[in-house]
Design brief:
Elements (H helix, E strand, L loop, with lengths): L20 H11 L6 E5 L12 E2 L9 E2 L3 E4 L8 E11 L13 E5 L11 E4 L4 E3 L2 E5 L8 E2 L10 E3 L7 H9 L4 E5 L3 E7 L3 E2 L8 E2 L2 H11 L3 E8 L3 H14 L2 E5 L9 H9 L1 E5 L3 E2 L4 E6 L2 E6 L3 H20 L9 E4 L4 E3 L4 E9 L2 E4 L8 H6 L2 E5 L4 E3 L4 E6 L6
Parallel strand pairs: 5-6, 13-16, 13-17, 14-15, 17-21, 19-24
Antiparallel strand pairs: 1-12, 2-11, 3-10, 4-6, 4-7, 5-9, 8-9, 18-20, 20-21, 22-28, 23-27, 24-25, 24-26, 26-28
Bound molecules: adenosine monophosphate and magnesium ion.
Length: 414
């Protein structure tokens, strides 16, 4: 069974007015926990899924010392001086075809890349460095024992934790697990995320007529799917309490979390916040962030509700900054902090104090460009952007070349 959140989990300390972004994030991080159960699955099917338990190596990798090159193997201790001069033993060792015998001191054996070192050998000399004549193998002596050999367990020891719990598995992780003999892993079942748009003005692409096309739902559904979540498309609820309530009930019955857009403020037609206030639990978070108006964070029958602003730009930025890490926690991934680095600005800007600002941005020629307009109605800027420039709360004047913090969308898992 999924854990229920405490009723007041999104409550803010009394007297809080504008919450700084980092405080809001710390609060989310503190109150949320995983809600998805574990299930066993084949490692080969697990890319993009989240590990519920650490994966331990079933065997060392490599399982035995082997050769890193094509050449000749021998015991380093049997060399005397600067030049190797060893007796060539009959036979060879190849990958998948180990040499059954044991090398005596003073003997060398033909060995190919990936072959286990036979008993009595610890070092390999490259075939290019060798002269073969009269049954002898002659070469300049490698200085170190173990040269050109891969020690057993170099990559992983048996029993070692090779993949931690909470890890969202990559294709490379599948190789890491498979290389140590892991066939099955404990995964979190996929988080089920419901998405609802609200507003009387919304119409669907493909239909004509007056109205605003619903841009948020395809965006947020795709974002959730991209993060490996299952999605539940709740369509559009008109600005009527019964419609919003019916959608909430469906989310509570069929999903682990609900993302809504629109109607999250405190106006007459803001039915998301109204309903959560009257019949659920909600805290309207006035976060000092731009773009973004109040964020309604609440619960409906134990299911967390993320009430985002209707404006698509604000909805997108708030989804990345607040909802993405929160969903990661619910999904069992733990708290994720997006990758961020400083790059020189390619733009000029002065900002007022008070709010953290996220600007639609991308990197060209090593500098962060921002979209030509900060207009929050410009959905084109979202599509243009490849990341966000993150400006701190205080007043700031940025000139070209000044360092600014850049958060690539890829760092959010997009
Ligand atoms: P609201 O938060 O409901 O006051 O909406 C703020 C602005 O966002 C209004 O101009 C809405 O028309 C617009 N809006 C709300 N929902 C969507 C949506 N799903 N797609 C595009 N625009 C929207
Ligand atoms: Mg509205």
């Amino acid at each position: 069974m999924a854990e229920r959140l405490p009723d007041d989990c999104f409550a803010l300390p009394p007297g809080v007015d504008w919450t700084p972004v980092d405080d809001a994030l710390a609060r989310l991080r503190a109150v949320l926990g995983p809600v998805t159960e574990a299930e066993t699955a084949a490692l080969s099917t697990a890319a993009g899924r989240i590990l519920a338990q650490p994966a331990l190596a079933l065997r060392a990798n490599p399982p035995a010392a082997n050769s890193a090159v094509d050449g000749y193997c021998f015991a380093h201790a049997s060399l005397a001086g600067e030049r190797g001069d060893l007796a060539l033993r009959q036979g060879r060792a190849a990958a998948g075809h180990p040499f059954a015998g044991q090398l005596a001191p003073g003997e060398a054996l033909r060995i190919l890349t990936g072959a286990d070192l036979p008993a009595g050998a610890d070092t390999v000399v490259l075939q290019e460095d060798v002269t073969l004549a009269e049954g002898r193998v002659r070469f300049p002596a490698p200085r170190k024992p173990g040269a050109n050999a891969r020690p057993m367990g170099e990559d992983a020891a048996a029993g070692e934790e090779v993949l931690p719990a909470g890890r969202r598995l990559t294709s490379a992780d599948l190789a890491r697990g498979a290389a140590t003999g892991i066939a099955e892993v404990a995964l979190r079942r996929a988080l089920r995320v419901a998405v609802l748009s609200t507003g009387d003005e919304l119409i669907q692409p493909g239909s004509a007529g007056p109205g605003i096309y619903d841009a948020n739902r395809p965006m947020l559904l795709a974002l959730a799917r991209r993060l490996g979540f299952q999605t539940l498309d709740l369509g559009v609820a008109r600005d009527r309490v019964e419609e919003v309530r019916a959608a909430f009930d469906r989310a509570a019955a069929e999903a682990d979390a609900l993302i809504t857009t629109g109607g999250a403020s405190a106006g007459d037609e803001d039915h998301v916040s109204r309903l959560l206030t009257d019949e659920g639990q909600v805290t309207t978070w006035r976060i000092a962030v731009k773009p973004g108006r109040p964020l309604a964070l609440g619960q409906w029958r134990g299911v967390p509700v993320f009430g985002l602003p209707g404006n698509p730009v604000a909805a997108f930025v708030c989804a990345l900054i607040f909802v993405r890490p929160a969903l990661g926690v619910l999904a069992g991934e733990g708290w994720t902090t997006p990758q961020a680095f400083d790059v020189p600005a390619a733009f000029e800007k002065s900002k007022k104090p008070g709010r953290r600002e996220f600007l639609r941005a991308r990197i060209r020629d090593g500098r962060a460009e921002i979209f030509h307009s900060e207009g929050s109605g410009l959905v084109g800027g979202l599509s243009w952007a490849e990341g966000l420039v993150d400006l701190p709360e205080p007043a700031l004047t940025i000139r070209p070349g000044d360092p600014v913090r850049y958060l690539p969308f890829s760092g959010f898992g997009l």
